[in-house]
Amino acid sequence: MAPETPVILDLSTDPVALTRALCDIASVSGDERAIADAVEAALRGYRHLEVLRDGDAVVARTNLGRPTRAVIAGHLDTVPVADNLPTRLIGEGALAELWGRGTVDMKGGVAVQLALAAELSEPTHDVTWVFYDHEEVASDLNGLGRLVRNHPDWVRGDFAVLGEPTDGGLEGGCNGTLRVEVRLEGVAAHSARAWMGRNAIHAAGEVLRRLESYEPASVEVDGLVYRESLNAVLVSGGMAANTIPDSCVVTVNYRFAPSASVAQAEAHVRDLFEGYDVVLVDAAAGARPGLDAPAVQQFAAAVLSVTGGQAGPKYGWTDVARFAELGVPAVNFGPGDPLLAHKRDEHVVVGQITLVHEALRHWLTT
After folding, report:
1. CA angle 294-298-299, nearest 5°?
2. Rounded-to-integer distance, Cα 251 and Cα 271, Å
3. What single-letter DSSP state applies at residue 153?
C-alpha cells in the first residue's frame, strides 16, 4: 500500500482559505498525525521561528529578546465527523459561512494563529505558538497538559491566549468543573414480591429533589460575573425489568466560579448531599480572568479597539486553566459561535475569522 501524500499547507494564503484546508485534513482526536505533520512542515519554512515537537503537539516560537512573551494556543483535533466534511462555503463576502466539522471548534482559530506565526517575523512581543492534540477527549490525554508536564519551559509566558471559539468576543478565565456520583443502595427482589426488597432508584428521588430546588449562584470574580450550575447528568440503575434494583447512581456535574478551589467546590457538593455516599469522579479547577494584569489589560485594549464590545466570562471549562496552573493569566479569544461547536450544522461566518485575525495582528504589531 502506497504511503499517503503529505498535506502541504500554504500559510501565506488568507485565513479563511487556510481554515478550509485545515478542516479538510482528517484530525479526529487520536488521528492528528497528518495535521501535526503538515503544521510542523509549514512552520519549519520560516527562519524566524524555532520549531519544537512532542508527539502530535507542535510549538513554534520567536526569540527576539522582547521584554514580554505571549503564548497563543489552539488544538488541532475535532470530535468525530457527522457527514459534515468536506467543508462548504455558502454565500459571498464577509457574511459568507464556512460549514463543516472543525470550522468553529477550532480550525478558524488555528488558521489565524498559523497565518500570523508565518507573517510576523518581528512582533512586539516574543510569541510562542502552540498547536496541540487530544483536546476533545479525556483530560489525561490532552496535548497541552502533556506539554505542561514534560516541557513547561515551552509554554511559559507572561500572558496566554487560547483561540477557542468565543463568537469573536473576549472571554476571561473559565469556570471550574467537577463530577460526583451519588450512590444509593437498596435490596434486590422479584418485582412480583416488591415488598421483599428496597428500590434504590426510588431512593434517588430525594437526591433529584435537592437538585431541582437548588439555586445556582452568580459570582463576581475580578469584575466578571460567572454563572454556576449544578445538575444531574446521568442516572443509572437496575438489572432487569422484573427485578427491584438494589443500586442506583446519580452522576452530578458542578460548574463553579473560578474564585473557588476544587476542595471548596467538593465540600459544597458534599454539604448538599449530606447523608449520602458521594464519590468524586473527576475535577478541574477554573481560571481567574486576571483582568488586572498589565499584559491582559494591554491585550484587551488592543483587540477590543478592533472588535468593539467588552470582556465577558467563559462559562465552560477550557485549557486556560492549564496556564493558570503555571501562574500565567489567560483569556479565550477566537472566531465561531461556541453554541455551534460539535453540532452537525457547525459553521462559522468568514468575516469573524478575518476580524479575529485583524485584532490579533493589531495587538502584535502595536
Report:
1. 115
2. 16
3. G
For this structure, is 105 an active site residue? no
Whether the upstream peptide bond of residue 289 has omega within 30° of 0, thus cis, is no
Q: How many CB atoms lie within 10 A of CB 153?
A: 7
- Cα separation, 327 vs 325, in Å, equals 5
* Whether residue 56 lies in the annotated active site: no
Stretch 57-84: mean pLDDT: 96
Percent of all residues in the chain with a pLDDT value above 70, rounded to a whole number: 99
Length of the chain: 366
> Is pLDDT of 1 > 60?
no
Q: Which residue of the set 135, 136, 167, 319 is catalytic? A: 135
Catalytic residue (choose from 32, 40, 77, 126): 77
Residue 48, by phi and psi: left (phi above 0), alpha (psi -120 to 50) or beta? alpha
Rounded distance between C-alpha atoms, residue 39 and residue 117, angstroms: 11
Percent of the chain with pLDDT over 90: 88
Give the separation between CA 331 and CA 326, rounded to whole angstroms. Answer: 14
Q: What is the pLDDT of residues 148-202, one digit of tens each?
A: 999 999 999 999 999 999 999 999 999 999 999 999 999 999 999 999 999 999 9
pTM: 0.87
Task: Give 92: exposed, middle or buried? Use CB within 10 Å, 0-12, 13-18, 19+.
Answer: exposed
Q: Compute the C-alpha angle 324/329/335, nearest 5°.
A: 100
CA atoms of 298 and 316, how far apart (whole Å)? 24
Residue 157 phi, psi (nearest 5): -170, -175
Give the three cell numbers for residue 180: 460526583
Grid cell of 61 as nine digits: 516560537
Q: What is the pLDDT of residue 4?
A: 65
36-45 pLDDT per residue, tens:
999 999 999 9
